[in-house]
Design goal:
Distance between the termini of chain A: 42 Å
Radius of gyration of chain A: 22 Å
Number of strands of chain A: 0
Number of domains of chain A: 1
Structural class of chain B: mainly alpha
Helix content of chain A: over 70%
Oligomer: heterodimer
Distance between the termini of chain B: 17 Å
Strand content of chain B: under 5%
Shape of chain A: rod-shaped
Order of helices and strands of chain B: HH
Number of strands of chain B: 0
Radius of gyration of chain B: 24 Å
């Protein structure tokens, strides 16, 4: 026991001190780029709805389907990293938000003011996801 | 090499405190800004409903999206906190490494 204390413990301490700790996943530039792209696409889509409120849900079906697939792709990337539960949860929230948007749109044309509110909400959501991703660049709090 | 706990503790605490001092304002400012935006959006949603611009299903969807968005913001704040803790621990460990190597007179820990 004394040998253990005198040799292994100091060695372990030296190992921790020299290696540092990691509490969250590393920064992923692909996820960062994906966030910027999908934010832009949603913003343009909702801006378009604002200008053409008579655009029906049926006209937008393909948009919603492709968008969902692309969010799922980013979620897949996020799941590939250890200690990345927070970001995975954020992508789950984004998918759920997209589903709510689909429901809102299927209930009838969206008023321009409603489209504005939705632009703000998706802007805040994508900003949140990207802000967390950028913080993973070590040293950036 | 004669290293005392106090030789390590002081520089480690100073390094951790310095690290938090850098990270905390950024997290606080982010939280403040985004909570303000969320509050404004909620006011807009209630205005939409009151003015009949959104039907019941749309209003419910907007509120659900607002809830999900708020959750995502809180997750980011949580994440910024974790990064701040990681940075502080590693700053403290770097300070400990420096102190140990100084006491040893050689680069004992690389």
């Amino acid at each position: 026991m004394l040998v253990l204390r005198r040799t292994l413990l100091p060695a372990l301490l030296l190992l921790v001190v020299s290696c540092g700790v990691t509490l969250i996943a590393p920064y992923d530039p692909e996820i960062d780029r994906g966030c910027v792209e999908l934010h832009g696409r949603m913003d343009r889509f909702l801006h378009g709805l604002r200008s053409e409120p008579q655009a029906t849900f049926v006209d937008s079906l393909d948009y919603y389907d492709h968008y969902e697939l692309d969010v799922r792709a980013l979620r897949f990337l996020a799941r590939g990293h250890d200690q990345n539960d927070l970001s995975v949860q954020q992508f789950d929230n984004m998918l759920a938000s997209l589903e709510q948007l689909r429901l809102a749109h299927s209930a009838g044309p969206l008023a321009p003011e409603t489209a504005d509110v939705l632009r703000d909400l998706f802007d805040i959501s994508w900003s949140a996801i990207r802000r967390l991703e950028l913080a993973k660049k070590r040293g950036d709090g | 090499m004669s290293l005392k706990v106090s030789d390590l503790l002081q520089p480690m605490l100073a390094a951790a405190k310095g690290s938090f001092a850098q990270d905390w304002p950024a997290a606080r400012d982010y939280a403040r800004t985004e909570m303000d935006r969320l509050a404004r959006v909620l006011v807009n949603i209630s205005k939409q409903v009151a003015e009949g611009k959104a039907n019941e299903q749309q209003a419910r969807a907007l509120l659900n999206i607002h809830r999900l968005t708020t959750q995502s913001v809180l997750l980011t704040i949580q994440g910024l906190g974790i990064v701040a803790v990681e940075n502080a621990i590693n700053a403290a460990l770097a300070a400990a490494k420096k102190a140990v190597n100084k006491a040893a007179g050689i680069a004992l820990i690389l």
